[in-house]
Predict the structure of SDR family oxidoreductase.
Amino acid sequence: MNPTRSAIVTGSSSGIGLAVVQMLREEGYGVTMVARRAEKLSTAEQLVSSVPGPPVHALAGSVAEEGFLDEVVQFHTATFGALDLLMNNAGIASRTPVADITAELLDEHYAVNTRAVLLLTSKSLPLLQAAVAARGTAQVVNTSSNAGKRGEANLGAYSATKAAVLGFTEALHQELSTAGIKATAICPGLVDTPMADDTRDVVSPSEMIAPRDIAEAVRMTTRLSASCTVPEIILLRPTDWILPPDA
Ligand SMILES: NC(=O)c1ccc[n+]([C@@H]2O[C@H](COP(=O)([O-])OP(=O)(O)OC[C@H]3O[C@@H](n4cnc5c(N)ncnc54)[C@H](OP(=O)(O)O)[C@@H]3O)[C@@H](O)[C@H]2O)c1
């Protein structure tokens, strides 16, 4: 088996996933980067590879396709033989009032934000177990959202699919933490990534959480001993969760 610790990070062609990949390589992990658009992913892979470090590979495809998830697991198995960290991070968000929610919009959000998280984790179990056998521990990090903790107006489909990610992460913890596989849900408020582009006219990037902040939180989880797990991390902007004075 490859002695290098390794990770799969979905949604790593920009934003949070890209920052996490850069951090993981600093920590010595080889990485399989996964995202939908091949050209964008290739540019991100080149940026990551420009810094010397453990191997990086990129696989482009949609996590909504089950066959692609099998491909990702097969590739990572052949390349690394074990999986120390799976980060289910790919996500989509569409600002849509409840009145305009359609079956198509729901299916799209569910397929990427929820179904892929459960399926890829399930398919990765043998690889995660191989890491536990080799190094005593492995981990799954699922990117939920502040909207998964407290549903947000005009983000009904997104909020619901991100709340489901929290439910799954808790189940994973209950089922597999004693077998050495830790589960962590990350719940950020507004992060300065392409996903936040439609809010830039009301919130400046300097007031948003930085992708690197999320990467630092994930770094902390990678450095803990096998006997310590962090089930959930909430990262807020200072203005979040504060009631206005007239509420
Ligand atoms: N930004 C925020 O304010 C915020 C807050 C809380 C949680 N989050 C969550 O953080 C995660 C990362 O988002 P981000 O903010 O970093 O935004 P981002 O920069 O837009 O990243 C989204 C990533 O997901 C990939 N992706 C989307 N659909 C995919 C699919 N069907 N198959 C494979 N990859 C797919 C994208 O690839 P392509 O570009 O090729 O589609 C991209 O790499 C998401 O789960 C998001 O819900 C974001």
